[in-house]
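User: I'm putting together a teaching handout on how multi-component assemblies are represented. Below are the sequence lines for each component of a complex, exactly as they appear in our records. Could you produce the 3D structure of the whole assembly as structure tokens, so the students can see both representations side by side? Please keep the chain order the same as the input.
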Amino acid sequence: MKRDIFQAIADPTRRAILVLVATKALTPNAIAEQFNSTRQAVSKHIKILNECELLDEKKLGREIYYQLKIDKMKEVDQWLEQFKQIWESRFSQLDQVLMNLKSKENEI
Amino acid sequence: MKSNLLMNFTVDKETSTVNVKREFNASLSKVWSAWTEPEILDQWWAPSPWKAKTKNMDFKEGGRRLYAMLGPEGEEHWAIADFTSITPKTNFKYLDAFSDSEGNLNTDFPRSNWNVNFSEQGNSTIVAIAIKHDNLSDLEKIIEMGFKEGFTFAMEGLDEIFASSSK
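Assistant: Of course. Below is the structure of the complete assembly, with chains in the same order as your input.
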């Protein structure tokens, strides 16, 4: 069965795994350590992500390392940019709130 | 309103810290109030069209803020901030977490350490925020924030990633 990409991101643990392996290659154990779920549950998520062709699989000795496919790094930067925009949006609201506080003070 | 005020945004991958620095055109005491009084905080904390709603907030060391981010389609994401250190008009620190509406921690996600610094510069006030994670990558931080803001941004980002990957 061909996995749907949206199946990959439907689950919060899988989204978190994607982010983890975006910066460096990790073994399944290293990934599992970041979660409170069982190792088995995390392995299942990795398997699904792998079937969605989102992961590069590298074998080093006896260990398998997973990494987000490298051509997606650029898009991760765009993602970071969106995070920055959240702060910009938040701060321009704060600017407005501060202006309102000031004008209230002037009325008194 | 378009702002020309300085904003600095950096991610330190070595220390898993996101740094945000911003200048505000207001006095230190007003900016401090805006960050520490729930009635004011709720007016700006959620990026539009989301709204923040503080259920309770005890702004003192050892105290907690329990609040929700309310989405335009009725989404509700609860979070807490546990204040660990407060130096009035200078600095406060807290540990954040996702929770339910009663403040029970969602332990599926790690907590991050917030350090918010205030300083006066002429007629304006500089706020410098450092958000640090213990052991997760900086990008983990980003997705977590995405969750906090109601998934929208993070999901759109992912959608883009996946749209380009399927080409």
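A couple of points students might notice: The first strand of chain B starts at residue 7 and ends at 12. Chain B touches chain A through 53 residues (CB under 8 Å).
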